[in-house]
Amino acid sequence: MQEQASLHVLGALTDTEAYEFKKAMKADPELQALVASLSIATEALASAVPAAEPPPQLRAKILDQVAPRQKMVTLPERKSGFALWLPWSLATCLASLCVLLFAQDSKLKNTLTAQAEQINSLHQLAASLQSATNNLQQTVFALQETNRLANLRIAMLNSLLADAPKAVAVSLWDDSKQQGVFVVQNLKPLPADRDYQLWVLDNGTTPVDAGVFRVDEKGNVRVEFKAKQPIKVAGRFAVTEEVRGGVTSPTIKNMVLASN
Amino acid sequence: MSMCAQTSLVQVFPAFSGRPARSFAVIIEPVNQPETQDRDVALLRQIAAGDRTAFAEFYDRHSTLMFSVAMKILNDNSEAQDVLQETFLQIWEKAGKFDPKLGKASSWVAIMTRNKAVDKIRASQRRSRLADEAATAHAIAAEVADTVNENLHGHEEAKIIQAAIVGLPEEQRHAIELAYFSGLTQDEISKKLNTPLGTIKARIRRGLLKLRDQLEGRHY
Hints:
Chain A contains five helices and eight strands, in the order αααααββββββββ.
């Protein structure tokens, strides 16, 4: 160790060797004493060189470069382990909280984005459904129309009169509403004590009174009518000439118009 | 000069024999060395607390020794001034790290100066030339009247110190001077002198211990 100590006081150790030696010296009072004693020799060496005086102005230059140090601030004494670790614990907690909040924030943002996308999808679905609903409504309307038309019975009545062969009529009957429209052309006008009477033949056979009507001077009329009894199937239509006000049963020999 | 604050001029004496052209030299009354060391320790503590007045006093006490060491190593006045300036600024910053158990303040500042001067040599890659010079011309002053020791310790003490150094075996003194003033590591000295490393280590150890033994207890 004397050799290492000698080299150390002369500055002849490498940086690594000097570091190791200082480390060893810290834990070894005898080594410290040896170094202190050897420093007598190095000081003698240093002071045995020829004397040289620094220039006088250098003193002021050096002194000018050292500013009075800031007054040392005495830190409060660390009172206890609790007081020592509490701020660090709080700082750790805050840091953890920040990390947690950041993670939650990211998670919420992701959730929000996903939900926004879901809402857009739902909007698109709703629009699609609305469109489908409209289509359905149109379909329903179409079906209703179809159904309504299906309930309609249209029949053309031809003339049975030799002196009025051009007489013609059309009957439009609505089963669901149990009512109809009857349009006549070219039927000869009747005297005041006579009426034409419309008959609906239920199931094509049973005549049901549908009311009386008169035509104008040109032989035309348009009337809305209802049967006196419920009609199950409006199979055929017929018109007879009757006494004014009509009769309960048709006079067959006086039939003027009939459908097939 | 630096010692004026603590010493007085008490004697004027002729120059050391054989030394030409110096009629008078200043002898400074040797100071009480333990008190000097205590004063240095106190000043360093004050410096550590930021006391510029203490720093100025410390400068006066040690600047000659430090500048002389720097000049010996660098042989350049301007560079020696730079080293002195840098070392004092380092003292201002590190005064609180001085440990009196590891030696005297003068040894501490001398080795700091030495290290900075050697760093400057290494930085400017002048080592080879200076090492060569050191190898051919010994660093120790040939005449005691020229030395820092005379200013610090007085003529008689300076003579004793000088005699102790000069009295070392040539190979020991040479190895020590190469290490201290040329900044060579033990390996470099070994190569420089073409001598086994173990021999170099032994020479340095024996030389320093001998020097210490001769000077120990003299309180300089």
